[in-house]
Please model this.
Amino acid sequence: MQGIVSISGTNYKNALQARKGGKPGLPPVRCCDSDPSLCGYPAGLKRNYNDLPERVSFRSKQNLDYSFLILYSARLGQYYLQIEDDVFSAKNFLSTIKRRVAEQEAKKTTWAMLEFSALGYIGKLYKSAQLPLLARFLFLFYQEMPCDWLMGRFRDLMTQKEQILFKPSLFQHMGTFSSFQGTYNKLKDKDFEEQYTNPPAEVYTDMSSYKKHFPKLAWDAGEDFFWGRSPEKGNHLTVVFRGPTLVTGIMVETGSGGKDLLESAQVEIGHDVITTEKDRSCKKFQTVGTFKNGLFEIQEMDKKYTSASSCLRIQITAAQKDWLIITKIRISTKLRTSTNQA
Model:
């Protein structure tokens, strides 16, 4: 693996100084410098989408910069990953990308772009063999629309039928000001998870799962989820920890696209693990809160619940006609300072 940094700006002296930035221990970095005569912003362009001339000039220059960078990178590897300089990545992002690419290649279906972030031109992966085509495409249509719109058109032209977007996202935008006139930019990827490690646990439910959308998928990291048929009052999804766990925060997301939300339920923590013929649970539970609009979230709960728990339970409090999707269950924990168990 090697990194390629595009250095292109109107202040060429600063760009040359930026070439000295590398850090020891990191993968090799190549610098792709634009010729000083090409660093200015183009003018006299078409004003599509009623954008201001300054905005059209800015996004057009971006497309030209990307075109040069992509063409430069075409013969340097098997795949090309486009990211920005103001993002941070999830841990083990490279191994995750390698696994996803291998899975996609095994399907033997046509693809032109894999997406590891929902934001703009961040986390987009291409086959290097197609980079010359992408570079020409951006160069030909540089003034027509922003780069993230053009990449969608390129994907369609390369006969990739649907977007291939993996979740959770592997890259998060961290900048607060745009390169365009220093405007404030609070863009964040809601599906980004920097480092997610729920403690080891078993997950049980008495709700009927749809196909292979089993309850454990909501607990594990990844894009899969639990999908159950219409829940009845008294149904539950119970997480049994492998050891007593001091829980400091809980977040549960349900639904997809505003549908299959959990309408009425409460979240409970439990203690004293018991085993039955069908599953495992806890003997005693206490309620820590209820769902609102399909979402439950609580932080700093260890200030009130100071001892370790052995279970986490989502208890349905009213029947609903819609099916139920639990997209993720995430908890935060900390080491216990005493041997008491809640």
Observations:
- The CA atoms of residues 100 and 334 lie 31 Å apart.
- The mean pLDDT is 84.
